[in-house]
Structures are given as structure tokens and as C-alpha cells.
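One-letter codes give the sequence; the fold follows as C-alpha cells. Both lines appear below.
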Amino acid sequence: MKKIFLIFSFCLALFADDATTTIVNQGVSLPKIVVQDASNLSDVNLQNQFFKLMVGDLKVGATFEVDSSYYQSSYDGDYTTNLASTPALIVRYEVSGSKNSSMSLKTKVLNATNGSVVYESKFDMQDGNKFPFLAHRVVAEIVKSLGYSDVDWMNKMILFSRYTSAKTSEILIADYTLTYQKSVVNGGLNIFPKWAGAAQEAFYYTTYINGNIPTIYKYNLSNGGKSQIFTGRGMTIASDVSLDGSKLLITDAPEEQADIFIYDMRSRSKTKVTNYPGIDVNGNFVDNDSRVVFVSDRLGYPNIFAQDIGSGNVEQMVFHGKNNNSISTNGSYIVYSSRESNGEFNIYMISTQTDYIRQLTAGGKNMFPRFSSDGGSIIYIKDSGYQSAVGIIRVNENRSFQFPLKIGKIQSLDW
């Protein structure tokens, strides 16, 4: 059990509750935009939530300077209606329906200087409980239609495991703000969920059969079905999936010490990648699936290494800090959490192709980073001691946002 605990400690970070939304590194001047609500919902709380989502999404898009004040207007009202400032653009929307039915959203963007309509569309959603995705979808379309940086990652779901009691956890799906949450796997200890592909139709996770046999399952979101994939020993985890979805990187300990294996979903066979009499965990594909980066205690403390698939040559990737862990990859880039000399944890990004290194956070405990599908954003958990938050880093825009975390204790997450 001691060895399993050591491996487990390498693989995760624990977090808890509450924070307020903040923005740092605001950068250059951006076009000012106001949001006008033309809705008339019977559920006032839902109407307020939706407005906050629209404003929040526009802020996180990092394209506009967004006025947070609440403005109302009729949908077809004059462009000078209810303006307390002089913005460049007006986003006006009308949402209808309820959480218990379908919902519709019509929206348009007006030029605030002459009232011309520069964008207009309508969206429908069958399940009103998923209303945050309605806001995310329209904002992503607005940003794209106006020619700014793509933020389609807003439409992606977050996958996470949270503890519900001792040795018990559930797996949930959520939108990136955690406003929408749905439990999909519960009962027993269900940990380390990992999306099976970019389509987010299925995911892998580890559970324990008979209380002590770690087993990887694949869960199908469309029908709720699950299939057993792999039974291992010690801490058994599916940490990454190849680009074509045919191979998994698995941490397993058949000989007591954890190593990284490639598991072929077609042949149902595994191939050993690392071979070290210590702890190798958290393998991630990098460089078009030709290499594997992982966390190892080869230096006497957790650090990041890379190894070509089929080769025994191991390369040290990080040369600072005494506790570098919790990695994620996208293309040739790696993000990881590093423990500083003052006890804080910060997130860094490096490239496998150059000596590039960039610090992405400053201060506090910033852990468990995960790349968005396009690599332009990173989600992470920020723990400030007395409160915690989910953070979003917009890498190219040099901006960071934090959202309240009111979901208990997160064991791990994927995006």
C-alpha cells in the first residue's frame, strides 16, 4: 500500500472550494462591447445566470473589453437604447424556454456608431439543463464571425472525478465554467478519467474491482454503456490517448514499480515503454505520437523526462525545481506544475523542439494543467489555502481567468 500511495501522490493534486472571478495581465487596449438582454424568462435566476455566462464568455475570449453592467433592451430596439457608455459593439440576445424544456437563443451584434447589424443568428437546444453550452456556442460563433481568434474550445466538456466520501468518488461532465454538471459514473472509487478522443463521445477511467483490483473501463456517453479494457496492479491509469484513438498510454506496476506501457486497443496487447526500477507515471504522447513524456523519480524527486517510442534513450526535459509533475501535452508543447522554493506551485510551458520555457502563473498553488483541444488555452486548479478556483490561461492573449469552485474535492480532470 505504501508503494501505491507514492505512485498516487505523483499523479494527482487535491483541491477545495470557492473563489471569485478575476483577470490578470490585461495587455493592450481592446474594442469595448456591451451586452443587452432582451429576454423575459419566468425564471429570474436563469435569466441572470445566462447574462453572466454571456459576459463571462466574451471576457474569456480575450478579444473585447467587456462592460459587466446589466443592460436590457427589446430585441428589435434602436441601437441607442439603454447605453450608459460609448462601446464599439453591442451584443443583444433573447433567450427563451426553460431548464426543463428546450431552449432557443437569437442574437445579433450591432455597430454602436451607426446601428448596422454585423452578425445575427439563432440557436436551439433540446436539453435546457445544458444552457451554458448555448451561451458558449453563440459567443464562439460571434468571435469567429467577427474575424477574431477561434474560441471553439468553449464548446468542449470538462471531465473530472470528485470525492464524495472516503474511498468513494464519482465522475462528472461539465462545461468549462462548471455551471453545468452531470454525474455519469458513481459507486465505488472512480478516478483518473481521460477522454477517448476529440469527439468526447467516450472516456476511460480507473475503478477498483472487489475493492483492490485496479481496472480501466471505457464509458460510452451516448448510451451509458461501459466495457472493461485492462486489469492491472498497483496504480493503473490510462493517462493519454493517441491521435487516432487506437493506443493508450497506461501506468501499471506488474512488478511492483510503476512503468509506462502502450496498450493497443486493436490487438489488446501492451508494450513496455519505460524500464526503470523506480516510479514512472503520467505518460503523454508528444511530437505527433513519436515520443512519450512522463514523470519519474530518477533524480530522487519528481521530474519530467522524454523517451522516443522504441528507444531506451531517456532525455531530461526540465532543469529547475524539485517537484515537477502533473503534465499535459499538445503538439510539441508540454505544460506542467512545478514546486517553487517558497512552497508555491506554478505552471510552466516548454517545447520539445527548442529551449523555450515560459512561466504561466505566479503565486499560490497552481496545479493539474490541461491543454484545450486547440492548444491555445490551459485549464488548471488554483488553491490559495482558504479557497480554490478553476483557472483558465489564454496562452497567446497572455490573460488568465478564475472561476468559483463549489464542487467538493477534485481528484483529477481532463479537457
